[in-house]
Batch of 2 targets.
Target 1
Amino acid sequence: MAARLEALRDLWELDQPTIGGWCAIPSAISAELLGVAGFDWVVIDAQHGLVGFEDLAVMLPALSNAGVPALVRVPWNEPSAIMKALDAGAQGVIVPMVNSPEDARLATEACRFPPRGNRSWGPVRPSLYDQEYAPATANRNVICAVMVETVDAVASVDDILAVPGIDAVFVGPSDLAISAGFLPSADPTEPVHLELIETVLKACKARGIVAGIACGNAGLVRRWRDEGFRMLAVPSDMSLLSDAAAQLLRDIG
Amino acid sequence: MAARLEALRDLWELDQPTIGGWCAIPSAISAELLGVAGFDWVVIDAQHGLVGFEDLAVMLPALSNAGVPALVRVPWNEPSAIMKALDAGAQGVIVPMVNSPEDARLATEACRFPPRGNRSWGPVRPSLYDQEYAPATANRNVICAVMVETVDAVASVDDILAVPGIDAVFVGPSDLAISAGFLPSADPTEPVHLELIETVLKACKARGIVAGIACGNAGLVRRWRDEGFRMLAVPSDMSLLSDAAAQLLRDIG
Amino acid sequence: MAARLEALRDLWELDQPTIGGWCAIPSAISAELLGVAGFDWVVIDAQHGLVGFEDLAVMLPALSNAGVPALVRVPWNEPSAIMKALDAGAQGVIVPMVNSPEDARLATEACRFPPRGNRSWGPVRPSLYDQEYAPATANRNVICAVMVETVDAVASVDDILAVPGIDAVFVGPSDLAISAGFLPSADPTEPVHLELIETVLKACKARGIVAGIACGNAGLVRRWRDEGFRMLAVPSDMSLLSDAAAQLLRDIG
Amino acid sequence: MAARLEALRDLWELDQPTIGGWCAIPSAISAELLGVAGFDWVVIDAQHGLVGFEDLAVMLPALSNAGVPALVRVPWNEPSAIMKALDAGAQGVIVPMVNSPEDARLATEACRFPPRGNRSWGPVRPSLYDQEYAPATANRNVICAVMVETVDAVASVDDILAVPGIDAVFVGPSDLAISAGFLPSADPTEPVHLELIETVLKACKARGIVAGIACGNAGLVRRWRDEGFRMLAVPSDMSLLSDAAAQLLRDIG
Amino acid sequence: MAARLEALRDLWELDQPTIGGWCAIPSAISAELLGVAGFDWVVIDAQHGLVGFEDLAVMLPALSNAGVPALVRVPWNEPSAIMKALDAGAQGVIVPMVNSPEDARLATEACRFPPRGNRSWGPVRPSLYDQEYAPATANRNVICAVMVETVDAVASVDDILAVPGIDAVFVGPSDLAISAGFLPSADPTEPVHLELIETVLKACKARGIVAGIACGNAGLVRRWRDEGFRMLAVPSDMSLLSDAAAQLLRDIG
Amino acid sequence: MAARLEALRDLWELDQPTIGGWCAIPSAISAELLGVAGFDWVVIDAQHGLVGFEDLAVMLPALSNAGVPALVRVPWNEPSAIMKALDAGAQGVIVPMVNSPEDARLATEACRFPPRGNRSWGPVRPSLYDQEYAPATANRNVICAVMVETVDAVASVDDILAVPGIDAVFVGPSDLAISAGFLPSADPTEPVHLELIETVLKACKARGIVAGIACGNAGLVRRWRDEGFRMLAVPSDMSLLSDAAAQLLRDIG
Ligand SMILES: [Mg+2]
Ligand SMILES: [Mg+2]
Ligand SMILES: [Mg+2]
Ligand SMILES: [Mg+2]
Ligand SMILES: [Mg+2]
Ligand SMILES: [Mg+2]
């Protein structure tokens, strides 16, 4: 695991794009399947996916076994959700609805032990594999990605990015669209919507922070990659499965 | 499902009373059983019932299959609990301990997408059945019932009801009794207790908001129905089962 | 626990009737609820109840905690199902569809260590509470009830009862009715059906073996108790709950 | 549900082909997703899928809610597995490795109540929706599909088909290939392999029994449909998801 | 259960030390095993242990059956986590990261019904065993232990202890060490670290509140017991198991 | 994983002893903990451990991640249990109560695809990691260990070993003791008991088949290793944990 996780940080440090898979199905075997599919990282979505703690506690070892860094999107910006995901072995978290520097501070501090934050000691699963696991190592390794996905958040994006400890900003285009008065859309076309996304990207670039985004299809992955996003999430397992079944039925005729 | 859910709103709009079943047992089959028993709606009680997220994620499809609208009483007034219940397919939530307009705003906003609230987009289960599922539809359909169950809440009931987006107020007579200095009671007899309940009912009537209440037995359902409550919950599956076993043993002698 | 279990054998040895609760819902809390309801024993129905091994492994401690002897009706007359139930702490098993002496031997031998049977050693849960737990004790304590529930089984009932190690015979009236060409019925009225039941009862009395039967209601418990049945099972939690909900809705009107 | 199930039998009686989805992931939400995808029926694969009884007990209500007939492929030709699947609400079973008339009799008898078989009475979930649920109805409705998937089975196919109560024969091309000395293949090309499949198809046609087959891709569905197969299973959710992820990564480049 | 729980309070009132076991493994059987091992109380660690609500809901009956008082360390100082643990039958909670009187008030009030707090009525499991279960009894019985485990918390320890309703203060030496700038350590040796611990102990003694601490080994239990700690927790099941396996492999050579 | 598994076969081919851990607790995290403890292989005990299929399906990825070959002791000599364990990714099985060549044939054939056996094709988890996974590879890799643990089995041990496809014979000393008329014992001292064990060992040596045995403590591991056993299982996680807790309490005093 360590190798792959270091690889991810290395890729980001070399400003290389990375592609992530997305688990919404609460199952170890579907997670493991995505884990071996070739993604650079995989998210377990405990926000909108139907995933509770017992689920992610068995999905994480499956993803580790697949040799891919596993992030958990926590249900909300809550210390307990963030810390439990990390104790269960997530290499990092994606924290939704970070709309202000205060929100960002809450998220980053939950990811880091003192003096950088207030994470509580008890790294039950990570320490199985690293007897020398220590606060400093953990603070270096754990990835904290915050979601900027409202108009308010974009307005404060520079202040948010100024909060120490943010490794990446992950844009949620659907929530951002709704917050801007549009329909949620996998394929942003509204100029205002696009401008909001670009604002986030520019702010990230200016600070050397990885910019990420949820992409509704392969074309969007390519497009945002070309623009400079380095953390590109593909549609969820449920979307892929649903589309594949529909396509198959069309192919059968 | 749509039909039955619309039927519930229709009944309420016609000022018709509705009866709800109550699931405290964390099991899909006991939920499905209550779902087909003839209730107008069924609650999965994730507050005092022994129900966690993994449980409700499998109880909700069972209740859908039974063709009955399913509400989730969330453990506490927390956005993550409310949003996860809705993403998993609950037609609405009952939010406990709403004691102030601020509490009410927190609850209603978690139930609705912008601009009416801050619900985050990702309606995983509802969108399986409605490819056109959109924020506006969701905002119209989702039922937000807030619990008024303390002396403080009753004192602020008018201000609470003034918060936009409350579909129903659900009275918790036991908590209200304790908060007023009495023993929790399924059958309110203390004048002060009764007066508190009446105060809520009147406030709801004045605003055209559905009033609901937990009823300890059939007689209380009839009584509160006659008084004007339109959302009448019967005792939980655990109470029914416990009473049925006791009665059976008495009948055997 | 020991006390209550001994009490059950004592009651049977004094030819006293005993009443049993029936768990079809796969849940520790509904099991525990029935466990404290006042029954002399409780069955976890892993045959027709929606109960798998993971379920019964958590229902058994709940029933132990309630202080009531717990039997498991296994899905079928299979050694693995019988032995796993006993290792998980069931005080005994009810084995369905025992239609011949060979079937009976298969069942009783799976319940007992050599030389009385072929149960394999590994009493994981029972030995938590009895460090002196030994094959001889186990062989004495474990209850093996076999179901006689087909016309063929009744025809062979004397040979079945002659198999050593049968503690009780449990009649399944519904399967017996179907096997005799009638509809499954909670309340046997067909003379042929009744005669089959009486045949089993007489054979049990002749050998001093406890006779048991599933009873569709309190009246049938009283009737079969008067006839001499000593192991009287009431309807399942699902039946009780379903009837209670229906009655409640009728009472509400 | 009844409508859709009748529709399936109707389609078969009109000699119309039907397409089935395949669940190997142990999850209610992925099952429900396939349930709404447009298939005529869906299989929960408890043989090679990672599905245990607790899993299928929550996947079945999800599939019912999706309005699609649900079959369970049981792990092996065992009465307990067949009967528990039916009690949990499966509309039918697919029984693997039916290699002889004796095997077929074991399978069909486990699906039917006396006098047609030896299924034991306790239809816990089906009777929730049909208070008149009776042995005769159940015997008519339950679908028993047996797998012919070895050289020996093909050699005995006429004797197997002569066993009363077989609704469909389902060919497992991979096992059949291995048993004939070939590699397991989603796309049979070996003449001997093809001939074995054709032999089964002809035997089914001669007896008016539905022939089914697992198809590795859309082209094979079309091909076998043209040949006269009427029960055409598509690749499992795991296959679809794996292929979709691989294709997506190729599309991204 | 009642007997043992009273015994715990009695021991504390007699100023007797008590030893507690620690469950981090999410399993009813390992909890039950620790429950019978001879500890005075056992904690289910839902903070750093891999334990979610569904897990603790089945671990609690197992611990009750073992006859030992069960505490739950909740994931965070949140009312929903505290109240759900108590409704599921925990005899008390250990609340992490109580750093101020405000934190302490939040914790203690969530443990007690009005007028002492804001716990909501619905004691589903406790009331199974005590039909007279009432707010006053519950308020007396429930144990609220708060964790003092940061430098800030120690600085405010007198104010924290002044909050009514604290039964015990539980020191987390690892978090305290990190907060003081040291490595987390099972065996505090840094004078500053030791002084912080002593400060808490003295404050507890001054107020007659039980002092507790997590102890990394038997020697530390003896040491802290001699110093006056009365709530001494041993290493978790995971630590014990890990050490035992390592020792065994060393013994084998 | 492949590396470690090959290492196990290599060790056996070099006649080197190997030590195995034993999981009776149904939990992915306790399995993973044993997986990293340094054993050469780990068994998930689905016979006497409280482990069902859903449990082992999540324990296997955890053990894979720990990098240790995982065997499953199946509940009984049944094809469905054996095949499901292998499809879920077990590197092999330990089959209890193999008392005759017929039993041995049933076990070995369930482990191997035709023409060597009758395993059915569907290696869901193994094929995630090996797209070239094929019957011949699987037949070579899968480990089939049969338990010789009765007097009858020892009497037939030569005939049992003559059955092709047995990789190892695993002695169950407790069952063997009971079958020989003794108490189950972790430390065989009865000459008759010891002689039975030696008979198995000699027969294995004569055929070049690995001999294995369950060892009650480190001393017995050394003793049996010196005698020539090459598959040495230590006490279960439950035993280790129970002993560790007892020792700790003694050390505390
Ligand atoms: Mg979002
Ligand atoms: Mg309340
Ligand atoms: Mg029966
Ligand atoms: Mg096959
Ligand atoms: Mg701490
Ligand atoms: Mg054995």
Target 2
Amino acid sequence: MSDHAVPSPTDTDAALLSEARALDAADPLHAHLDAFLEAPGVQAYLDGNSLGRPLAVVPERLAAFVREDWGTRLIRSWDEQWMDLPERLGDRIAEVTLGAAPGQTIVADSTSVLLYKLIRAGAAAAGAPAGPDGARTEIVIEEGNFPTDRFIAAGVAAELGMDLVWVQPDPVRGVTVDDLVPVLSARTALVVLSHVDYRSGALADMAAITAQVHDAGALVLWDLCHSAGSVPMQLDAWGADLAVGCTYKYLNGGPGSPAFAYVRRDLQAQIRQPIQGWWSAADIFAMGPRYAPTPGIRQLLSGTPPVTSMLAMQAMLDLIAEAGMAAVRAKSVSLTDFAVRAADEVLAPLGVRLLSPRDSALRGGHITIGHPEFQAVTQRLWGEGVIPDFRFPDGIRLGLSPLSTSHEETLRGVVAVRDALALGGR
Amino acid sequence: MSDHAVPSPTDTDAALLSEARALDAADPLHAHLDAFLEAPGVQAYLDGNSLGRPLAVVPERLAAFVREDWGTRLIRSWDEQWMDLPERLGDRIAEVTLGAAPGQTIVADSTSVLLYKLIRAGAAAAGAPAGPDGARTEIVIEEGNFPTDRFIAAGVAAELGMDLVWVQPDPVRGVTVDDLVPVLSARTALVVLSHVDYRSGALADMAAITAQVHDAGALVLWDLCHSAGSVPMQLDAWGADLAVGCTYKYLNGGPGSPAFAYVRRDLQAQIRQPIQGWWSAADIFAMGPRYAPTPGIRQLLSGTPPVTSMLAMQAMLDLIAEAGMAAVRAKSVSLTDFAVRAADEVLAPLGVRLLSPRDSALRGGHITIGHPEFQAVTQRLWGEGVIPDFRFPDGIRLGLSPLSTSHEETLRGVVAVRDALALGGR
């Protein structure tokens, strides 16, 4: 009868529900929940960091785009508005979320393709591929970094005859300056790190680590997939060299919307990306015999920009701008703090572990909790309209997109995990 | 008074108009024109080979996708329908337009990025980069090929330490077996050619040229951008090795919709593409320490597939399937034949030259005409809702997308060119 050791769900639930409702009532961004499309049958959407929800205006905006910009203006829209959309949208992302001046950010391709371009370009610019002794021949990457970052860095290292060097931070605390001390050296060309860890949610100190990498004479590439639109940044002030980020998470661009890349202005003349398609050429319509890259951030383009996939995020950027990143972050902290408290009270007694930092200053917009039964639990929850994310081998990730998630919704999710665990265990 | 040498516009116009109307009345695909969205103010859209028109169902399909698949099913749609969309849509393109069996075609990225992947992979598979004497170290490309093909081939050749060798065909007739004789050798690794030339519309003999390249022991990559959805193909029967094509032209996928790639089944185990992102991994969600590519065509993926940009083309593929590629080609030939006759009668007297093959068997779905004033003429026409494409330095390209263009519309375009030229010359 060890079940009796578990606190009574009803009392705990009621107290947490009161707390959630009080937090929602005091939330200055609560009204923004109405900006998102309703999702019939969804009790709790806790995966906004895998796929952000569409804003309510998006269906008609896409339809109007097809009728007017594409269907009526037709090819003329390239001249009228699409040609510079990759830069305009990049500048908008930079202004609203990155703390970066114009002319350094561009929207294109996927995160993986942009990582390839910038890891290649950055490693080649900073290092001397297959060079003599003393050359910078190492790409440093965290062993817990997102797979595509690691896979692509490994591929580039092999291509350029460079070595991959692994950083091994604490998986919950995430990468720190101390972790980099043993690996940085005069051989380091490029360091590839995530601003927010995709599993633990650990938030790296971008300013301190960037300064440390620069002291070693190397460049750093930041993966912003799990921070863009959730954690305020000052890329320019912090001296970031290169960055790549995702627009379908906290920027709500829709499934497979293109990625963005940032290259610090004074590095732009030193890099050369490998996929030299016509959109990166100095004169795109000259169609001359030889390739010459255009100067500036536009050199990162390759093929025709994916216009249709660049539309939905624009409404979200407007909403974030209206709220302000400081307020977005404050709500994000409130949501994850509350999720940690609720998990402590409701889930810890069932053996669920917190796999994220307890200190909100060390955390991004999601938390991860662990239990051996979470794969089966996630499957059951999805069928019931409670939608967290499962991360192999035993993690449930609660991605609490600040503008589209309430405290009460967060609690519904945590309670549903408890109920599913209880069912699963018997 | 040399103007009097020009045939009276009125009589010629009237005769051609009768002919156009008779051809439209006899056109078995004429009713399909109604499947496309109306474009208010557009008199003649003659640029379907730069950006195909949206089908009338597309605005609501995109809106419903946002409301339901994205907005309500949310992240669950990846499991339910999006995960294998790149292959399913690739197979559909293969079945409807390419004459290729399933499992060899995938939708991803842009044409430029897929060209990079396949030129890299094909050159490396066929050649021996920077190898000893006797190795295959040459990439052969046509000097008039589309810029992105040439630029990317040049970049890959430099990366791999290979040489770029130029084919120099007649610019109107396009590349033939005879043109390749002097350049193919035991040093040839990969040949990169367009099926339909982006300027002249010249149609290459894919079967004969592929056999010739194979006789030389090399591989061939076909750029299908200007033929997919317009010219019937039998990629499997013709023995094509690699191919890349565009979906925003005759497949009406919308601005910047992703490209497709074809890799012959028995080559798939021999190639390795360079951008080894997580979507190309053997087990995408294992997120293990080391990269291992998945077998089959899915190895060409890198990042998250651009789902939103993959929707519009599906309606067009259904329409092409309903019409059948043979009927689409028959109408395409009728349209370009009529455009050539109209240009001969209406424009040749003003000094306009035909820059495309006269024999329809040697031509794809567009023709190009030349005159020194065409840049200014195009600008004027666009303002009037007559929309051809200008190609530097003096070409107007008439892209006659078979399912969305009528003979009468084609004639309106040709007559408008004449009228604009007449105005411009005075």
